């Protein structure tokens, strides 16, 4: 679905102002005009599960040991014109996640004609052994019988090495990994019209050209604002000289989202919210030229263009 097609037409333009100091100059997270109340929020609230994932990723060996997947004897499929991952998976009676994991597909939309895919004969997940792993722990983590793990990989010894690839039969990739590969990690948080995008623009109050670290989506006061992705409410607050009433969520994969200029919020700190769950209502609080939602996505503490992530 095209994000621009999914936004309702509106006529209200809206903006918000940043401080003169670059909010990512090294001193912390967001900076607000004349107010340091929430300056370090983005660095202070990091999802602990995401930290674990990053630590594990850092432990991967750059030159992994050879795979033992020859026992599976996967077939090779060459992508044809009009193919999709869902169709290929259905044709081979497999889950999409199996094809995605087995071929380390990061974005299914980049599937190209002629690309060769490895197709296993059973559902499962391709897993790269990390430092400190043991076969029993891997089986327990994916909730599969240990003997199935041994048989699928033709393992005769309990010795495994970091970087080694294992196929975990019957396992499923996480909902996060699936949505990421499908390009469905984030959804539009509110219905309205994009009044200002990510990038340089003239400050509406001073005329000075500054960086705008998010999207301004104009709409009616009271319109529901929803979580763009499953996450946890890190904090909420009121910044009268900047973002007004705001909510910050943390997400898996070291992502964070900011929802600002809210009329009110409907969540509490520490609450887990599902993608699409209401977290507040669009407003005109703080320093603003009209009712709108300022929406930002941060990855590893750095702002990214939401239009590259939303669907």
What does the average pLDDT come to?
A: 80
Q: Considering DSSP H and I runs of 4 or more, what fraction of the residues is helical?
A: 10-25%
Rg result: 23 Å
Largest sheet: 10 strands, antiparallel
Count the E strands: 16
The oligomeric state of the chains shown is single chain
What general outline do the C-alpha atoms trace? elongated
Are there runs of 5+ residues with pLDDT below 50, and where? Answer: 1-41, 43-68
List the total number of helices. 8
The fraction of residues assigned to DSSP E strands is: 25-35%
- First and last CA, distance: 6 Å
Structural class: alpha+beta
Task: Please provide the ordered H/E string of secondary-structure elements.
Answer: HHHEHHEEHHEHEEEEEEEEEEEE
Characteristics:
elongated, alpha+beta, disordered N terminus, 311 residues, 10-stranded antiparallel β-sheet
List the helices and strands and how they pair.
Elements: H1 3-6, H2 41-44, H3 48-58, E1 75-78, H4 85-91, H5 96-102, E2 116-119, E3 124-128, H6 135-142, H7 146-152, E4 165-169, H8 175-182, E5 193-196, E6 199-202, E7 209-212, E8 215-218, E9 224-226, E10 231-239, E11 244-251, E12 255-265, E13 272-273, E14 278-282, E15 292-299, E16 302-304
Antiparallel strand pairs: 1-2, 3-4, 5-8, 6-7, 8-15, 9-14, 10-11, 10-13, 11-12, 12-14, 12-15, 15-16
Helix pairs in contact: 4-5
